[in-house]
User: Fold this.
Amino acid sequence: LRPLTYRAPKQMLPIVGVPMLERVLANLAKHGVTEAVLSLGYLPDRFIAAYPDHTVAGVHVTYAVEPSPLDTAGAIRFAALDAGINETFIVVNGDVLTDLDVTRLVAFHRERGAEATIALHPVEDPSRFGVVPTHPDGRVIAFVEKPPRDEAPTNEINAGTYVLEPSVLETIAPDVRVSVERQTFPGLVERGSLYALSDDSYWLDTGTPQAYLEAHRDILESRRPVPLATPVANFNWVHESAQVANATLSLATIDRDCVIGSNVTIENSVLLPGAIVHEGATIRDSIIGPGATIGRGAILEATCVIGGGVTVPGGSILRGEVRLGGPE
Assistant:
């Protein structure tokens, strides 16, 4: 999601006005989770500053800041040991939005006496993900990372939520990069202690601009009901502090302190806090970063991503996955 993530970690980007992290933890809170450890590597201070009372969506959080990148398994081990975890625990990816039934997943894990259990999700094209074929009882046969579509043994993918026993931590080498998908889980398959459970509830990996826009559409079109301080109206969400003239809006998300001029058209697009759009501009299928300015009569279409504070001059025409903005 660069250039947006030059200024903020992906998990701190808002999804219809609420940071992604809060949307993720809200689902865990629904299932009785009260404590969480955030494994932080990139821009950790942004998380810590955002939640000085250590509470996110009603969940008490502590922070484990990696001294150097440890990959997925290394990060799990580091965070769990840093927090002194010595009982069954749940791992989630902070950039995956899901309504997964975590209670059911934990119950299945315990019924099977598993050392680790993966949530699975069925998809049409599994080639971008790790796929997980299983025996009828849920025991994992193999863990296949990103197979070609026509060679995938199943369309059930690793959905990025795990239930783990502390014994799994002993299989992860300390202080080095270790991948849970490529190293830890295949080892557990050999031990016969890795299980998986499929769940077809809402699931979305937000790792691309297209998926980030989809996350907003899913809420605006009520495919994913979530609590909102300001309600959706006519399939648009406009923060109460935003100033909008006689614009034409369709599947638009306009965050706080945005200013939208007259005769502006905004379709299937997200404007992050403080963005300014001058009169006559057209924005379609695009993301405008915080504090960015779109000049008079500019046209942005087909997944443009404008970084925070960037100015697009009036009369500009940007089409086709244009990304503007770099590190501060």
Summary: The radius of gyration is 21 Å. The mean pLDDT is 92. Residues 71-82 form the longest helix (12 residues). The chain has two domains: 4-205, 209-324.
